[in-house]
Amino acid sequence: DADVTQTPRNRITKTGKRIMLECSQTKGHDRMYWYRQDPGLGLRLIYYSFDVKDINKGEISDGYSVSRQAQAKFSLSLESAIPNQTALYFCATSDRQDEQFFGPGTRLTVL
Amino acid sequence: AQSVSQHNHHVILSEAASLELGCNYSYGGTVNLFWYVQYPGQHLQLLLKYFSGDPLVKGIKGFEAEFIKSKFSFNLRKPSVQWSDTAEYFCAVNARVNTGFQKLVFGTGTRLLVSP
Prior knowledge:
The structure holds 2 protein chains of 2 kinds. Helices cover 0% and strands 59% of the residues of chain A. Chain A is mainly beta. By secondary structure, chain B is mainly β. In chain B, a hairpin with a 4-residue loop joins strand 8 (64-68) and strand 9. In chain B, 35% of the residues are buried. The A-B interface holds A 31, 33, 40-45, 48, 50, 58, 90, 92, 94, 97-105 and B 9, 32, 34, 36, 42-46, 49, 51, 90, 94, 101, 103-104, 106-109.
């Protein structure tokens, strides 16, 4: 079984809709992250969390929110989706050595 | 703020050619360095990492990278590429200024195409 799972894997939605992307991990790591990947821009950090009580904004947090429901779960929400949020979204976890382990990604299309 | 530069955005090689992908970072303190690979349609996987010790690190699938502190570089190499190495490669740097967490910063990636 995969250590980091993401649901859904693909999603097409319309402008203005609320979307939630979910991430679960079985690695027992405290640290979790949400990135988006766009062609030519690499991966950019949206939010990260040290533990259940610690949430931090990344470099592109505007338009996004997160919830750390448990050590193993970290959800990303788009309150009102817009077309430029069309991207590939990755969840990741890490231990204190900061080697990150990535989920399979969610391809989101906002029409 | 720390930043990571990957100079080659697209590289095309024939099988058996040698590969070197450049990575430079901007931070003068202690760093952890990573190379990740993303095969078509897949998620990122760790190729190799450097935390300390021998600056020449070996990773999976015959890849290696050399940390040159004076040049702020961590270039990825492979003596002989295969068609299956076709992928996108990301360099990443995590800079430590204290015992707290520092974000992992990714380069923009290099797309490698290996022709049979």
